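Prompt: May I have another protein with tokenized structure?
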Amino acid sequence: MSRWTPEETSRLMADAGQMFMQNVNHLKAAGIWPDVDEDERKFLQAGIDEISEQQRIDAGWLAESITCLLWALKIIPGMPSYDQESSHEIVNALPANSIKDLIKQAHLRPEEEIKKQRNIAELWHWRARTRELQEEGYLFQLPSGYTIEQVIELAALKGAENGDLPHPIRSDFAARGKPYRDLSLEEFAVLTSIAQERHKALNWLCGFSSSGLWKDTPTDT
């Protein structure tokens, strides 16, 4: 954009503003605008030059949450592995129907299937938080005779036995072809965000939010 003429920039702002307002109008027409919280409304109604870099990053990670919801609605056949980012193109899997029609046609997977996926998300999020605490030097309160490494090994074995996790690598969760503990800092940051976003979406879907609102959904592990 730094190489554009003022006219080109102005045209983009106008076109983007019109597109964003169409999204808002769709939500209003479907009667679900009252369910959009204040921060979400500000984001949806902001111009592209009014959105911060952090807001863009946060919005980008919502592809993980969207993936969970599309999977739960049987719109996509399966969930990506927890060491693989969801493509932003996943939103194109949503049928091009009106929101009202989509709501009428919505059918969830069986409750037990969704709960199982929620447990998997929580398990991956637990592994991320455990590594974070290990690196901070946190003293874990564990049963006598156990180390945190042994607990991780047991979780990895049990998860694989249940079909929730891939087969462990060197007594740890297998992630990107190596033990989770050997992930680079960049890889670790990505996998943490994947797990956290999916955990939040599935917790919300399972009714963990005290208010029913997305923003109030906990992601404790």
